[in-house]
Request: fold
Amino acid sequence: MAETRVRQALPADVRQMHRLIEPYVNRRILLGKELVNLFEAIQEFVVAEVDGKVVGCGALHVMWEDLGEIRTIAVDEGALGHGVGKTIYMALEERAKQLGLSRLFCLTFEVEFFSSRGFEAVAEEVVDRDTYYELLRSTDGGIAEFLDLAAVKQNTLGNTRMIKQLD
Reply:
């Protein structure tokens, strides 16, 4: 496989990103994303290209002044096992560091993938009480999942909440 190049996602990439995400939604690994939501969040996404073709995507969502969430890493079935997911993740972690974040969160079925990148499973709350109450004001579904709210339990069943302290 040729070299993987990661770049900022563009609105022109959204339909391809949606096609990459859908198989994971069908297998209940990722939550579905409407096209409008992908367009709205395009600035959070990067895409991975091989020979000019988009073969993966992923997002970094800032949750708080020191905390970000890795979201929606999806890789084309034909590119699995070639380090595309790792390359996307590394680009997102670098972006988090550039933003001054000190912790990354993910909610995932891919425990081994994230564990190998320094994430650890967490059961307890990872923000202080005041921050928790501020985050409750968010309308973002991912924030509700992070907070482990009862209303989103159907989305999180079987997933592992993980966190990583950045250097």
